[in-house]
Specification:
This protein is an alpha+beta fold. Helix content is 28%, strand content 24%. The protein has 18 helices and 38 strands. Helix 7 crosses helix 18, helix 11 runs antiparallel to helix 12 and helix 16 runs antiparallel to helix 17. The longest helix has 22 residues.
Length: 794
C-alpha cells in the first residue's frame, strides 16, 4: 500500500488514507457488517479498537402509551386555534406525552486494547480504509521491521477480525486486553453491569447487562469474546491480559452477541450465540475468512461506480484533501464522499439487522448525544435517501421491518392519545419500538414521523416496481391514512383540513402568543413550536395520500377508504407564499424565531418529497429560493447535505457543490462522517451521497434527467450502476458537460423516458429501437424486462 500511495496509482475515489493515527474517536475509521461495528484508531504503542453490537441498548421491552389522553385533545386544539399556544403546549405535555417521556439509549459495547513495547517513535506511518474491500489497515516501521494490522467486520462469519503481521518472523510481541465500558450515569461498581475474565489460554471476554433507565429495567445481557490465534511464538493469559510473544503473525477474532430477539422478546442465550460464532470459524484461516467477507461486501459495493476528474490534490491524505477543497478543485473527493456513504449504509444496515440509527452502529458513549436513537423528523429518513439510487434496495429491509413493528404501539397511541383508528408515530423511537410523543411538546407534536417513513418505503416501489413489496406495504399505508382521516380537523377560519396539534421541526414561530416561558413538564425555559397545519405535515400527507390512492389502483382494490382519501386530500391546506416572499412554513403566515434555522421542514415537498417542482409548480420556486438564501449555506452536517439536494432540484449544481465544500471543511470529520455540532452522525454522510446523485441524475418527474445540476468543475465523468425510478439501472459518460454515451438496463419492462433526449439514438443489440419525441424535447421508448439499451448522440 505504501508503494501504491507513493506512486499515485491508487484510486482516490475509493481510498481514505492518513499519515497520522486518530487523535480522538471521531477520527477513527469504521468497519461494520450490519450488526457488529468497530472504530479503529490506528495507533502505535497502544492501539484501541472500539466495539459495538447493534442490539445493546438500555432498558428492555416497555410501552410509553398513556391511556385516556384523547379526552384532552379537543381542548388542546381549541387553544391552538384561538391563539393560545402555551396553554396548548402545557396541556399536551401533561396529558398526551408518552410516559416515560424519554426513551432508551444505544450503548457502547467494549474496547480492545493492544499494547506494544518500544514503539515511541515510528517511521513511514500510514493508515487507510479501502472502500473496495471494507478493510482498515495500519502500517508503520520500527527500526527495520514493518508492522501491519488489518481490521474488518465479516458478515458471513459474524465476527470482527484483526490480523497482525510483521516483515520479520518472530517480531510480534504485545499484550491484548478487552475492556467493558462503565456507564458513569448508572454506576457499575459492585454490580453485574459488566465483568472481565480470561477464557482458557487464548481468549478474553466481557459479560454484562444493560442499564436501567427511565424506570425501565435493563433486560439486555451481552457477551463479547476475544480469541487469539498466533502463528509461531507463544501465548498465555495473565490476569485480564493475553500475552503474545515473538509470533510471526496473529489473528484476533472478536465475537459478540446479546439476548435480544425482537422488540418484545429478549429470551436468547448470548453465551450460546457467541460460542456458536466461534465454533463456526474454528479451523478457518484468516485468508479464508477475509476472502469470504470481502466477496460478501463487494456484492453490494461493486454495483455502482462514480468517476469524477482527478487533480494533484486527489492523492493527498484525505484530511489534507478536505482542508484544501475550497482553494483547489478536487472533484474526485465528491466520488470518495459518495462511495463512503454507500460503505456506511452497507456497514450499518443489512437484511435481518436493525436499521441504521443516528450513528449507524458506531457509538463510543453510554449516554450518547440524542441517545443515538431513530430520529424521524429528518435523520432516519436521510440515512436511507441513497438506498435506492445507489442500487442497495435490499438494505432498506431493516427500516421496513421497523416501520411494521412501530404499527404495534402506534395503533395503541392512535387510540389512547388521539381517539383515532390506524396507527401513528412521532419523532423518535428506540430498539423497543415505542411510538408515543417524547422529550416534550416542542418535539412530540410531530405526528407525521410514521407517515414520512411510509413515504420513504414507497420509494422502493417507485424504483423497483415490485408489486409483492407494495402488497406488503399496503396495510402500513392504509393504517397511516386511517389515522389522519380521523385526526385532521377543519381550520375554523379557512375550512381547510389541517393537523392539530402540529410542529415544524424544530423551529419556533415568532407570532402573538409565542413567548419565552417555563415548561413544568421538562423543567426548561424555551419557546414552544406547537401550532396547527405545519407545511411539512401537509406536504408529507399529500404524498402519503397520493401514494395510497395510487397503490389502491395498482393493486386493483378501489376501496371506500380510497374515495374518502381522494376527497380529503383535495381539502388539504395548500402551499402558500408569505408576505415576506418565502414559502410559508405554517398555515398561518408567521415569522420565524431563528432565521438561520438548521431544518428546512417546509421544503420537504421539494426534496425528498414530490409536491414542489420547477416544472409542475413554478409559482413556488422563488419562494423556495428565498428560504434557502435567507437561511444560508451553513449549519450542521445533515442540514448542509439536505441543502445540496434542494439546490440540485432547483438545477443549481454550483451552489450545491459550494455547500458540499463547506460541509467538508466545517461539518465533517476526517473520515467523512458528518457532524451535528460536535457529535458524530451518519445522516449528513448519507445525505451527501444522495445529494451528489441528485446533481447527476433525477427521476422524480416521471422521466430520467441526466446531469440536471452539474457543477462546472465536474465537466467530465462516468456514473455506472446508479438506479432511477421505473426500474432502470443506468451507466453514462459525459465529456464537456454533455452526455456521450448512455446504457440503460430495464429491470421492470417499463416505458423509459429521457429528458432532452431528442438528439439521442436508441439501440438494442446493435439495432435501432423506435422512440417517440415529446413536445418538451424528451424521448420515450418501450422496454422489455432485462433488456439492455444503448443511447448515443445521433
Amino acid at each position: 500500500m505504501s508503494q501504491k500511495i507513493d506512486k499515485k496509482d491508487f484510486d482516490p475515489a475509493t481510498l481514505l488514507w492518513y499519515d497520522a493515527p486518530a487523535k480522538e474517536w471521531e477520527e477513527a475509521l469504521p468497519v461494520g457488517n450490519g450488526r457488529l461495528g468497530a472504530m479503529v484508531f490506528g495507533k502505535y504503542g497502544e492501539e484501541r479498537i472500539q466495539l459495538n453490537e447493534e442490539t445493546y441498548w438500555s432498558g428492555g421491552p416497555y410501552s410509553t402509551v398513556v391511556e385516556g389522553g384523547a379526552a384532552y385533545l379537543p381542548q388542546i386544539q381549541k387553544y391552538i386555534f384561538e391563539g393560545e399556544p402555551i396553554k396548548a403546549h402545557k396541556l399536551f405535555g401533561r396529558k398526551l406525552m408518552g410516559y416515560p417521556v424519554e426513551q432508551q439509549k444505544y450503548q457502547s459495547l467494549a474496547n480492545l486494547y493492544l499494547f506494544f513495547e518500544n514503539e515511541e517513535e515510528v517511521s513511514e506511518y500510514k493508515r487507510w480504509l479501502d472502500l473496495e474491500t471494507g478493510i482498515v489497515c495500519t502500517e508503520y516501521t520500527v527500526d527495520d521491521i514493518t508492522y501491519c494490522r488489518e481490521v474488518l467486520s465479516s458478515a458471513p462469519d459474524q465476527v470482527i477480525l484483526v490480523r497482525l503481521t510483521a516483515s520479520k518472523p518472530g517480531s510480534l510481541t504485545f499484550k491484548a486486553q478487552l475492556r467493558g465500558v462503565r456507564n458513569s450515569a448508572h454506576s457499575n461498581y459492585a454490580t453485574d453491569y459488566f465483568r472481565m475474565d480470561g477464557v482458557g489460554q487464548d481468549g478474553l471476554m466481557v459479560n454484562g447487562k444493560s442499564a436501567d433507565y427511565m424506570g425501565v429495567e435493563g433486560k439486555i445481557r451481552y457477551r463479547a469474546q476475544l480469541k487469539a490465534i498466533p502463528e509461531g511464538g507463544t501465548i498465555k493469559e495473565e490476569d485480564d491480559y493475553l500475552l503474545i510473544d515473538k509470533a510471526d503473525a496473529v489473528t484476533l477474532i472478536i465475537a459478540a452477541a446479546t439476548n435480544f430477539i425482537n422488540y418484545k422478546d429478549v429470551s436468547a442465550d448470548q453465551t450460546a450465540r457467541v460460542s456458536n460464532y466461534l465454533e463456526q470459524v474454528k479451523g478457518k484461516s484468516y485468508e479464508q475468512m477475509m476472502s469470504a467477507a470481502v466477496e460478501d461486501y463487494q456484492q453490494y459495493f461493486k454495483r455502482v461506480s462514480l468517476e469524477l476528474p482527478k487533480t494533484a490534490n486527489s492523492y493527498l491524505p484525505t484530511d489534507k484533501r478536505m482542508a484544501q477543497i475550497a482553494e483547489d478543485a478536487d472533484p474526485s473527493l465528491a466520488s470518495l464522499s459518495y462511495n463512503f456513504g454507500r460503505y456506511v449504509l452497507i456497514g450499518s444496515s443489512r437484511p435481518g439487522t436493525q436499521p441504521a440509527n443516528l450513528q449507524g452502529i458506531w457509538n463510543n458513549d453510554m449516554n450518547p448525544a440524542w441517545d443515538s436513537k431513530y430520529t424521524t423528523n429528518i435523520n432516519t429518513e436521510m440515512n436511507y435517501w441513497p438506498a435506492e439510487t445507489a442500487n442497495l434496495s435490499e438494505l432498506l429491509e431493516p427500516l421496513t421491518t421497523m416501520v411494521k413493528e412501530l404499527t404495534d404501539q402506534g395503533a395503541q397511541v392512535a387510540k389512547e392519545h388521539y381517539g383515532a383508528g390506524g396507527w401513528v408515530f412521532h419523532q423518535n423511537t428506540d430498539l423497543w419500538r415505542v411510538a408515543a410523543p417524547m422529550d416534550g411538546p416542542c418535539w412530540g407534536t410531530f405526528t407525521v414521523g410514521g407517515a414520512w417513513l411510509t413515504n420513504e418505503l414507497y420509494e422502493h416501489y417507485l424504483f423497483t416496481r415490485d408489486k409483492e413489496f407494495l402488497t406488503e406495504l399496503y396495510p402500513v399505508m392504509k393504517g397511516a391514512v386511517q389515522f389522519f382521516m380521523d385526526f385532521l380537523v377543519e381550520d375554523p377560519n379557512t375550512k381547510w383540513l389541517v393537523t392539530n396539534p402540529s410542529t415544524s421541526p424544530e423551529n419556533p414561530p415568532k407570532a402573538p402568543g409565542y413567548k419565552y416561558f417555563f415548561d413544568e413538564v421538562t423543567a426548561m425555559y424555551y419557546f414552544t413550536t406547537i401550532c396547527y397545519g405545519a407545511s411539512i405535515d401537509m406536504q408529507i400527507l399529500k404524498d402519503l395520500f397520493g401514494y395510497y390512492i395510487e397503490t389502491e389502483k395498482i393493486l386493483g382494490l378501489d376501496s371506500e377508504l380510497m374515495e374518502k382519501a381522494e376527497q380529503t386530500r383535495a381539502r388539504f391546506v395548500p402551499l402558500q407564499i408569505g408576505k415576506d416572499g418565502t414559502l410559508q412554513e405554517w398555515t398561518e403566515d408567521m415569522a420565524q424565531m431563528e432565521d438561520k434555522h438548521r431544518h428546512f421542514s417546509h421544503m420537504y415537498g421539494l426534496y425528498p418529497g414530490n409536491v414542489i417542482s420547477v416544472k409542475r409548480t413554478p409559482e413556488f420556486i422563488d419562494g423556495c429560493k428565498k428560504v434557502l438564501n435567507q437561511r444560508g449555506d451553513g449549519a450542521m452536517g445533515f442540514s448542509r447535505a439536505w441543502k445540496m439536494s434542494l439546490w440540485a432540484r432547483l438545477y443549481d449544481g454550483d451552489r450545491a457543490n459550494n455547500i458540499f465544500k463547506g460541509y467538508l471543511q466545517e461539518q465533517c470529520y476526517p473520515q467523512l462522517f458528518a457532524k451535528c455540532g460536535k457529535p458524530l452522525q451518519i445522516d449528513g454522510t448519507m445525505g451527501v451521497t444522495a445529494g451528489i446523485t441528485e446533481m447527476l441524475v433525477q427521476s422524480h418527474e416521471g422521466s430520467i434527467d441526466l446531469l440536471p445540476a452539474l457543477p462546472g468543475e465536474w465537466d467530465k465523468g462516468q456514473f455506472n450502476g446508479v438506479c432511477a425510478r421505473g426500474g432502470f439501472e443506468l451507466g453514462f459518460t459525459w465529456e464537456n458537460s454533455t452526455i456521450s454515451e448512455l446504457k440503460i438496463l430495464s429491470k421492470a419492462g417499463e416505458i423509459c423516458r429521457i429528458d432532452d433526449g431528442k438528439n439521442l439514438k436508441v439501440t438494442k443489440d446493435g439495432k435501432k429501437i423506435a422512440s417517440k419525441v415529446n413536445k418538451d424535447g424528451s424521448i420515450e421508448f418501450k422496454t422489455i424486462k432485462g433488456g439492455l439499451y444503448r443511447l448515443i448522440p445521433k
